Target: histidine kinase
Amino acid sequence: MESQRLNKSAPLLTLTKVRLNYGTLRVLEQIDLSLERAKVYALVGEHGAGKSSLARIISGLVKPQAGQIMFDGKTCQSLNLKTALELGVEMVHQHTLSLNPYFSIAENFALDSTPNYKLRSRKKNLTAAREFLAQYEIDLDPTMLVKNLTAVDQIFVDILKHIYARPKLFILDEALEKLTAPAFQKIIAILKTLQQAEVTILLITHRIDDIYNLADKVSIIKHGAILVTDDVKNIDKINLIKMAYTQVSNDPSADDLNEEFYHLLKYNEAILRNLPVNLIVTDQEQRIKLVNDSCEQNFNLAQTSYLNAPVERLLAGTNQDIADFIDAALIGKEEKTLYQIPLTFNQIKVMSNVRTFPIYDGAFFIGNIIIIEDVTEYDRLQKQVILSEKLASVGLLAAGVAHEINNPLEIIYTYLSYMKYRFRIPEFHEALDTLHEQVADIASIVSNLQSFSDHTRGAIEEIELNDTIRAMLNLIQHNAKHKQINIRFEPYQQELLIKANKHEIKQVLLNLFKNSFEAMPAGGEIFITTRQQLEDGLPFVQILFQDTGPGICDDNPNNIFLPFYSTKKGAEQNMGLGLSVSYGIVKKYHGTITVENIGEAGCQFLIQFPQARFIEGEKKSSEL
Model:
């Protein structure tokens, strides 16, 4: 009994001064390593450090040039693949599978893991495989041929095959990295069960999170030598990364290494800071570690305390679905793009393309990069193009409808006139007058449709825009005072000339006034401003028309330019054609008209025309 207790407490595997060469290349030198029973060991190091070579020695695939190997208290003079399997060593290789693609899952489980495999019946192998899969609640058909599985499922089955063999020492050489999330969780649960059954597990991985979530001990290998083996809890992540992966200097001096490492980090930070994009860098826990200069300037972050703050703090006020999408991309370490989303970033609203990029050092996940592209202007222009296409299609339809309606309408009107003078009955005349009135209303609608769809120009002349607006103000001022609406006009100081038909421009302005008057039945204010604007070196004239009404109750305010669209519910006299006609007139003279809600009250129209003559000037203020 005492000898059994001693054997149980002794290491399962001990390597002493093991050395391995591939020809003249020294791969491993003076490796000393002990693996205790029922422990999970992690072996970590950069590419080419010797991790896989060490695992191949333990599994009997490679024979070292020197050193001693003890397994389960016994010295192994000649450890080869056969003796390793007999001792209970199972290894899942990094690049090769141990599966026969033409065998079923059950047959692969039994192959090389069952004594006298050929003497066992297929039924017994199938029953044993079913029981094994059921034990771990794995939904796989053991009769399925391996070649019919996906590449990821083949890796999953390969790991299960080595577990099926009931190993004493189970080696996973970067095998977990290739699994899907559900398969990964299944294998983790099985590994914990194996550990409870006193199986020793050697995990070779680059994923630092796996080391801290699964392993009891970690060994760091570098340049073919074990630097340190210690409990995982005794080594923090930063020191682990630095010891395993940092290649900044060949100088063995720790002070020099730290200094060069610091300068390298500062150099990389300087590059990121000066990139001409809005860029944020986070760590593994989605804490902000860097916001570059462009992002600080565009979103007013210079005076904000954001270092080490969670990303969601900057996204306060953003649509929750969008915030959840970004959060899921960061947590899932995924490269994702979300196009043309309304983003509130540090309380600044922009239309953005948001991209997330996970950052890796080799296979080690460091954090994420978030790039925010402001596409507000692009989005505005795109909506303008879509609206123009909609209106062009409706215009063609309107022209056809108006033409078809006019013909029978004239016939009806003629017959009504004939009937009125043919029959002298007063009651009959009242009915005819009512019909005449209704026909006139129909004619008015048709006329508006024709105006909307008519792209021909009337008599074009040079119009001074400020004078045109003043003339309109004189026309409507009495009506405005009656409705308790105050109008403030701030004209540009110098002349603003455009080429258009004066009566059509007045119609555009009149439609805007009519729209605002109807939106403010209890009174309010209208602000009109004119100005010059240069775009791509060309002069434009702009009219800003703003009221203090309730705004436009629509996610896309520009829908009000569509024919027969109206937000004024219950206003039977409103046909919803005025702003559509205005849009058509503005477009006819190569202009643009857009609308947006302003804050919690009111909306603003922006009309822009090419300027006929460009004169520098200031603006002055006047009040009506």
